[in-house]
Amino acid sequence: MSHEIDKRGGLRQGSGRKKGSGKFGEPTRVMRIPHSKVTAIQAWLNLSSNKNSTDVLDGTVPKVGLGLDKSNKDFSGFGWYLPANDVSFIELPLYSHKVVAGFPSPADDYVEERLDLNEKLIHNKEATFLLVVQGDSMQNIGIKDGDTLIVDRSLEPRDGKIVIAALDGELTVKRLSMKSTGTWLVPENDDYPPILVREESDIVIWGVVTSAISQF
Amino acid sequence: MSHEIDKRGGLRQGSGRKKGSGKFGEPTRVMRIPHSKVTAIQAWLNLSSNKNSTDVLDGTVPKVGLGLDKSNKDFSGFGWYLPANDVSFIELPLYSHKVVAGFPSPADDYVEERLDLNEKLIHNKEATFLLVVQGDSMQNIGIKDGDTLIVDRSLEPRDGKIVIAALDGELTVKRLSMKSTGTWLVPENDDYPPILVREESDIVIWGVVTSAISQF
DNA sequence: ACTATGAAAAGTGTTACATAAATCAAATGA
DNA sequence: TCATTTGATTTATGTAACACTTTTCATAGT
């Protein structure tokens, strides 16, 4: 005769571990990572899974209607932070065009203003990094191959802004365009087509380009 | 009777794919990554897979991710402006906390080296000044109305350099061209003609343009 | 009512596996 | 002879599978 089977457990609704209860709070997937970056990525993952960390960027994180999920919140991780060195100050004379119509010398009274390039170009040094452009997809607005971009990740990506976007694992610089037709990443070069950002697209906005520097 | 077995191949020394011939140039391991960070990490790995480069400013555009859907032909690649500590990170196979500090993080503690834009852009502080462009005569090389130019008076104006020239009392930015036909000030805009600098012209070269800055 | 027990559902790190790509040497062909 | 083809060999790479672990809930037992 059959002895009593333990009736504990059994199929029941709502049992089991809850989704999102892991240390990342979201689903995961496996990726192959080169050894030299394993430690760095682990550190980053630990950083962002640390809830009480005083993330400088909290609160200034862009919210975009890009079909992005809450992954937006974790902007904290990437980009090389190269804040301006606050020790060294170089003040430069700035001549307005009308003034230099004459022949002033840098030492004379025609100097209207002196400024520090760091102050002029970097407004939020903790959230600013630089990168170098390769490619010509933005040449119409003067961003050329080899130019250095100053990127501020604390600025909200708005319609019309030049943004750095990681789309399906590739970094691009494009103009963000939010139309009734959807959200687009628009090159400034007629040889390249605009890219429609679909709902299911895997996209992360890394920051807003505030300046482009060409060196001759 | 046994027919002839193909004798091609067979065990041999040194055959096969070489170690380090993958896109990362080093061994890899699998890691579990939260979905929200997959794109960012992919982008970062693509950026950093410029193996042989020790050039601080260089960066190569990633090739194809194998098996990955990389439909996006339209791209502008980037090179990072790599700070010194990142070079160390690449060259030294250490996993100390110091090295991980090269990994981008919003926390100030993780920034080892700060970049000074003044140092990057200005080489001779005493002889350098800024001015703001008016007009579009140099738009072909990305110098646009409103851009800020960094001008070094200590550099010698040579053929091909972008210079600030005062010609007959008027200040212009042009490319200096010294040909057998004479000395020319050449606009980078087809709507404007090159200007021949005659013997009797009243011309002073104010300096050589080293950088142009566009702000968005 | 309170605790203990065990099944269920999800998380996590690692291994395994199926191709893909790269490389070399023998075989083949010009 | 010398270049090309062929196929084995080796490493690379993305994903599936696995062996746990952890969390959660329903029921049993006290």
Summing up helix and strand content along with how strands pair, one would put the structural category of chain A as mainly beta
Q: Largest interface, counted with CB-CB under 8 A?
A: A-B, 111 and 108 residues
Strand order of the largest sheet of chain A: 4-5-10-6-7-8-9
Number of domains of chain A: 2
Per DSSP E runs of 2 or more residues, the count of β-strands of chain A stands at: 10
Report what the structure shows.
The structure is a homodimer of 216-residue chains. In chain A, strand 8 and strand 9 (195-197) form a beta hairpin. Chain A folds into 2 domains: 56-83 and 124-216, Umud Fragment, subunit A (Ribbon), CATH 2.10.109.10; 85-121, no CATH class. The first copy, chain A, has helices at residues 35-49, 117-121, and strands spanning 28-34, 92-95, 113-115, 128-133, 148-152, 162-167, 170-179, 182-186, 195-197, 203-215. Helices cover 9% and strands 29% of the residues of chain A. The model of chain A is unreliable at 1-5 and 49-113 (pLDDT under 50). The termini of chain A are far apart. Chain A has 2 helices and 10 strands; from the N terminus they run βαββαβββββββ. At the A-B interface, strand 1, helix 1, strand 2, helix 2 and strand 4 of A face strand 1, helix 1, strand 2, helix 2 and helix 4 of B. Strand 4 (128-133) of chain A pairs antiparallel with strand 2 (78-80) of chain B, so a sheet runs across the interface.
